Amino acid sequence: MTTSSRRDRDPVLQAIAEVFRRHGYEGTSLSRLTTATGLGKGSLYNLFPHGKEQMIAEVLAHIQRWFETEIFVPLEETENPSAGIERMFRSTEQYFQSGQRICLMGLMALDGDTPFGTQIQAYFSDWQTALASAIYKSGKPQEEATDLAEEIVSGIQGALVLAHAQSDAGIFLRRMQSFRRRLGFPCGRLQ
Amino acid sequence: MTTSSRRDRDPVLQAIAEVFRRHGYEGTSLSRLTTATGLGKGSLYNLFPHGKEQMIAEVLAHIQRWFETEIFVPLEETENPSAGIERMFRSTEQYFQSGQRICLMGLMALDGDTPFGTQIQAYFSDWQTALASAIYKSGKPQEEATDLAEEIVSGIQGALVLAHAQSDAGIFLRRMQSFRRRLGFPCGRLQ
DNA sequence: CCCAGTTTGTACCGATCGGTACAAAGAGTC
DNA sequence: GACTCTTTGTACCGATCGGTACAAACTGGG
Fold first, then answer.
1. Is residue A145 part of a domain?
2. Which residues fall under the DNA-binding region feature (chains A, B) (predicted)?
């Protein structure tokens, strides 16, 4: 551990994540990873001794951590639930680059038999729980809060799918506005 | 063309489609296809001379055709828009096996650089257009009809993602009920 | 029953897969 | 500058990839 090691891991991990997002787990080959990161196999296997599986595991863990600290915790802890929810919308729009970026958790959820089922499950249920809690605190009855949270969390995933299918980021942003309206946030009616 | 040829294509195509659904395009290997179909490579390349790419192309075309005749056209042509919409919900629930089955179009939309972008685009915009038309005919203003159609089409995709992530088909069915409610269909409030 | 045409299994192709071995190069310490 | 320890590029591994060649087995029509 002379110089880099820890310091250089993060940007490399980010580049790797983007490859997984674009090609899925099985479509991500080591050659794609070497070109995307600019590192040779030697360096990659030095940083991630267990290869592809360690890479995807660390990428997923990194995503989970980011959402946890940046979105889920603020959602649950805020004393101003509306502000917390609005912050979630903004962070989400930013993270997914207004719909141009895919949700790797959602992609992995569809991909079938990964060994990360429980991790993916936790990601989505954490999100929904945190959001439901904030909506509940904002004054809606518990039952409705849970239902709205499910609607929004799944709706975000669907918006990403549709936006990507149509190559139209506007769809994603429009859906996000629709969720705000649904929660009674002031943001103007349609469009 | 002595016996089978045309007749046997369909069940084989169905088995192939299931493999694509479970593993994505890049994750679908010829060995998986041979075991899933029970056919050897020789037979597969006899039915689909251009290999994997022809298979996925025919699978997508088959899906497109099915939705077109079974859902989109009835949606647009019905004189009773509410009945047409309810029929769409039922067909959709049935097709996706109450959320246990994945939407291959949605998966391909996420998968990135496929040569089927326009086909995928058409699938979703056809769906949205047909649904918006039915909602409009049911009495909602055009602007709202378009928005609701976008909400529901993307919402279905998101419901599939979430249901698969949580291994809980109930999520999908609950979302579908929510859409019905949203359109003013009688189906009881929450749950 | 024979024969044209089809369907099938098997062997094989070069390319690429994920992963390993290891020697050369780099970098911090003294 | 010599000595560690880490990082890197390269060559190589067996396995599998998508795809082809082709002879044997099958099939219905005459």
1. yes
2. 29-48
CATH of residue A115: 1.10.357.10
Number of domains observed in the structure of chain A: 1
Cβ–Cβ contact B24 with A under 8 A: yes
Which bases of chain C are under 7 A from a protein CB atom? 5-11, 16-23, 26-28
User: Is pLDDT of A3 > 60?
Assistant: no
pLDDT at A33 over 50: yes
Taking the whole predicted model, whether its pTM rises above 0.90 is answered as yes
C-alpha B32/C-alpha B37 separation (Å) is 9
What average pLDDT does this structure show over B108-113? Answer: 88
B128 contacts B115 by C-beta, under 8 angstroms: no
Q: Are B126 and B69 in contact (CB under 8 A)?
A: no
> Is residue A190 a part of any domain in this protein?
no
For residue A73, the enclosing domain spans 6-182
Q: Is residue A75 part of a domain?
A: yes
The answer to whether B27 and A111 are in contact (CB under 8 A) is: yes
Which chain A residues in 12-71 sit with Cβ < 7 A of strand C? 28-32, 41-42, 45, 49-53
In DSSP notation, A118-165 reads: HHHHHHHHHHHHHHHHHHHHTT--HHHHHHHHHHHHHHHHHHHHHHHH
Please give the pLDDT value at position B9. Answer: 86
In a domain? residue A92: yes
pLDDT of residue B6: 54
Which B residues 137-166 touch A at CB under 8 Å? 143-144, 147, 150-151, 153-162, 164-166
Q: Which residue among B26, B107, B159 places its CB closest to the CB of A110?
A: B107
For B154, the token pair is 């993307």
Give CA A72 to chain center in angstroms: 11
